[in-house]
## 1
Amino acid sequence: MGLFFSPTKLVITSVLVFQFSAFHVAAKQVAQSAVAMPDSYSADTAKNILELGGNAVDAAIAAQFVLAVTLPEAGNIGGGGFMLIQKDGKSDFIDYRETAPSDAHRDMYLDEQGNVIPNRSIYGIHASGVPGSVAGMWLAHKKHGTVEWKKLVQPAVTLAEQGFVVPPKLAQGVSNYISYLNEQKIDVNFEKYFAGLKANEKFTQPELAKTLKRIRDDGQAGFYEGETANIIEKFMRKHGGIITKADLKNYTAKSRTPLKASWNGYEVLTSPPPSSGGIAILQWLKMYELQKLHNEVAHNSSSYVHLLSEIGKRVFADRAEYLGDPDFFDVPVNALINEIYLKKRMADISLTAISTTEKIKPGLKESEQTTHFSIVDKMGNAVANTTTINLGFGSGVVVEGAGFILNDEMDDFSAKPGVMNAFGALGGKANEIQPHKRMLSSMTPTILLKDNTVKMVTGSPGGTTIISSVYQSILNAIEFNMSADQVVNVPRFHHQLWPKNVIRVHEGLNDAVKVELQKMGYTIDERHFGDMHVIINKDGELDAASENSGRGKSIVF
Ligand code: GLY
């Protein structure tokens, strides 16, 4: 399919990070709040909710709904995500990942010869999992919210009904996407809904406004039951899709225990399966730390890029073999982040030579759009939220009558062992398609704590590159003591075992370093990835930043 290399097909996921009210008594109070958001509408809404006395979860919920209106590449009610919460000194992880419909089956994307049918899990009516976002927000609100639900959904209703002024970068993204759909002769209805979106002009979404009103008035049932569910099922039947009213009614968001591990004097609080990201960043950070005992390497030098790429090979070999939905597959979480295991795992890494891709096996025996935001409130609570419809603008399908874009998250399953998905990721039994199962994700909303105080809130979009953005943001902030602005804007890089010895790098990585890496045998793929929105707490002072390349906005107040 080659979408991993396509400049036009973006992959969008969003992460939201918030810090809440009523922080643990032992925790140091911060007088400031901060939001680091993927656009100005979500930033201003989150700030308003915090100023009205809401906590970080309230702000996150309101922002999630606003992004469904103003960031159609990734913001959504037709997708899913993960919300990591540190509130009142306790942590929670709301898993609102999409699930496979009940009629889904392992070979649903294969033709009669057993080959993967190109594009079927990426565009059109067959690409979508059962959406989880509304149920996720509802569960987060029930467990942690303080502001009335209606007040949190209303800003999105207003923006959909009365319109929002379109940022030029969004207009460009929509225009590129429509051209791509036309060039590739992909038959979806995206253009019908979004062709009228023009830079610096108001864009209204009346059908979406009505759907949001039902959610505002009836909560979770406003999406999964009644009129919205009827519209979705009718639309699915008309076009041959398989999501039913029963699938919608049975969808449940889950509260899971976040992964926690000590690293470098901090407690890293991160995403458990069905995210692959939490295990991956812990493997990456711990192996880096073990290596550091022997050799120090300078930030973004060729040795640094090579070392972290070598670690990445091992991380992604484990990901392909062992990671999937924990409700369906026994994920060996503790074994994978065990230090003795990781020491053995890195024993054959050389700082001067590339290991052979084909020889890196799982160790136990084995355009990326999404959106992320981070919020910290003045009571010291935090939320990191990442949400996605998978690739940019999801499946390209808008539910007629309900006005929202459906995800193409089914592509995050492994359609066939040994066949890469749109992110170049491989998978096997752990991540094969089964009814009601959650597809493996790379979304990695993460919070760093010290003495139970929030020190950093981080996350990014970018499919499998999310994992590299997140672990490098932590190294940049903690190991290399960078400001939030430096953390999000310093060039990053990504390697994931396959494609063989290809390192994807941001523009700006030193030319001499790139030449040295090429001499070692790497291929350099210079393409930006991610859109980080990070908050750092330095001695009680909050520092927030959004990446320059995106249309994000960060405010400390
Ligand atoms: N859809 C991208 C991810 O969840 O990893």
Note: The CA atoms of residues 13 and 370 lie 2 Å apart.
## 2
Amino acid sequence: MTFKPAKWPRKLRSQKWFGGTSRDAIYHRGWMKNQGLPHDLFDGRPVIGILNTWSELTPCNAHLNDLAQRVKHGIYEAGGLPVEVPVFSTSESGFRPTAMMFRNLAAMAVEEAMRGQPMDGCVLMVGCDKTTPSLLMAAASTDLPSIVVTGGPMLNGYFRGERVGSGTHLWKFSEAVKAGEMTAADFLEAEASMSRSPGSCNTMGTASTMASMAEALGMALSGNAAIPAVDSRRRVMAQLTGRRIVQMVKDDLKPSDVMTRAAFENAIRTNGAIGGSTNAVVHLLAIAGRVGVDLTLDDWDALGRDVATIVNLMPSGKYLMEEFFYAGGLPVVLKRLGEAGLLNKDALTVAGETMWDQVKDVVNHNEDVILPVEKALTQHGGIAVLKGNLAPKGAVLKPSAASAHLLTHRGRAVVFEDIDDYKRKINDEALDIDETCVMVLKNCGPKGYPGMAEVGNMGLPPKVLRKGITDMVRISDARMSGTAYGTVVLHTSPEAAAGGPLAVVRDGDMIELDVPNRRLHLDIPEAELAARLADWTPPPDKPASGYAWLHHAHVEGADTGADLDFLKGCRGAPVGRDSH
Ligand code: FES
């Protein structure tokens, strides 16, 4: 930790709007005063933007307005001026074709909202999957002092006495209906039990993973990730976050001071320990690209490979975020990593202290939820990065969510050219497929679909499910919900829509998956593969205009984070010309 706080008092960027007696200053201040703000609030104190992803169509964030009031209290208490600013909100459950397509749009919009307006620091109010990385990407690109507070997870779901995890049980129940093991009426009844309070998904899905990543990166106050949305301590966390950002502005503690290479290493290892979502791979690569940290897909394998998955949460384990919180939450996991020599203890956090100072004294209150390492769900958690002629730039698989007997597998390809082709064929009893086959789905990557949808964990054919088989090897360039599970190879790069080898796999080709040796191989002669690639032509339905065009034209591969090429890097927050 080499951070030295800046001198205070000093002139902040908001004073370029609000300071002095010029016509422009009076214009900026005067209009703000229509909200009943006393004159002394413009005296040079930190102006804090509360960037709020509240939206009634982002149900996981629909309670953030209430929480924002707590953040405001904290900012006022610490002597700042809070301004609540609604920003682009990307709902995982509702946005079509997929929220991922809009992560970069949200990041771009938020970045400009931060840079173009009088803010000295920002509270990033996030929750649902993409809201967290998009705002972190924006903060990294402006490098204005920023701190994350998440909305927190929903309470446990229960259906007929059993825990029901967001997403995880949706996939389970829908497969059970297809297999004839659950009635449609029961499925409908289960729906009401899944989401019984405000908050984000209660499994270790992408929202919980990204909340954990924010905390492991040092960008949220310690303990933030797991507090349930409706727990009074969530409000306390919001208020403390409001207090803290004011001091961060005074100290000039910026994202680039916190999100260092050491912080990303901590986050990757944490992802292995919590059994976190594969989505964290693309998000952390994108955030690193914004803050200028050299992070690669290979780092994910090298750093996470031997990290034991000790958090016993769905989809890899059996509990939910509520129990994780009661057990002590992420600080316990970080402490365990530190004790195992797997934590950069000196990494700076938004609290102004090192990560180790934050977690060294915490206690594990439930060893069935945060397991001792000898009882870990797997000794080799983390994300496996596979390479081979089918994925020259890499593909990922989550070993803790996969079936051990399929981690080394050779099987006949059954190919779906795109998601519509899959939907047309999968329930057809005449489809030539059994459990030894490898399901291959194309054209669902960043350019495909478009937007890299979470369809990689494609459901199995009913005739396989009826045999009691629940897993098969599946390969695609898509993503998978963090709440999902299975032996699913994802993010295959280059993607099919960009002419990667995945595009030329044919029915009947043999494919070899060898996770221990990190290999993904299409078993056809090299010359044959080259000839097929030479014959390949891009899918015809390229977007012609609008944001879809911009996204398609500029999105990079999943192997580097699927950011838009022109948004990478830190542009800072210089104050532009006055508009009058
Ligand atoms: Fe919003 Fe899962 S759908 S967090």
Note: The radius of gyration is 24 Å.
